[in-house]
Amino acid sequence: MTVSDMENVHNKSLARHRDGSLTRNLTNILRENILAGNPAPGEKLPSEAKLIKQHNVSRTVIREAISVLREEGLVEPRQGAGVFVLEPSSIAGPILEGIDPKRISSVVEALELRTAIEVEAAFLAASRCSPQQEENIIRAFQEVGNCIKNGRSTAKADFALHLAIAEASNNRRFVDLINLLGGDMIPRAAFGQRAEIASASYLDKLHEEHRRIVTAISNRDPLAAREAMRDHLAGSQRRYRAYLNTQAANL
User: Fold this and answer.
1) HTH gntR-type domain location, by residue (predicted)?
2) Which one of 85, 103, 137 terminates a domain?
3) Which of 3, 102, 130, 156 has the CA that lies 20 to 30 A from 45?
4) Domain termination residue (choose one: 67, 85, 103)
5) Is there a contact between 203 and 97 (Cβ–Cβ < 8 Å)?
6) What is the CATH number of the domain that holds 81?
């Protein structure tokens, strides 16, 4: 093989690598947009020409990215009509299978899943919420406070607050996921009802974390809302992990 032949092989290899990277990047961008509802199910992706212009990639990269999304069940190319976004197939079963609010390790897994969802939901809520949605969040926050004050379980009110924040994101996917998690996303039963009511310091800390989230959303400060939600859920993970370690030490 001549030097020229070797250079040609090398250049072709680089081109394939470059195209592969471009395909992955474009696929990730389109996937994120679709999961965020843009375009919504039933709507079309931009045409090939528009995608080429928007992302500065070749027709081959566009078609490879569409092929990946089709295999994932997110889009459907229709002859002569374009590429349409599909309703995402149900993933709730495999993801939520085996969540047990009485098993602390399972609780921690649920909290980690919540973090992936709710941190961004809080960011979007601060960016997009309407006055009515803000009022719903504040009302839900106040109800958590009433439950603490009157010695009642806060689990239901807590869930309502997090759901109100998801609704204020104006992205129905966040709402769908939180509804799918349901009461398991506030699995305070793991501590036991007695522990929940008795631990005033725990509930005060919880309420203050909620206050920071609500204040950031009311101030229309997306970055502060994201950070406050992240801190809140990280705190929840620490509390449940500490409880798990305590239980293990008592065995």
Assistant:
1) 20-88
2) 85
3) 130
4) 85
5) no
6) 1.10.10.10
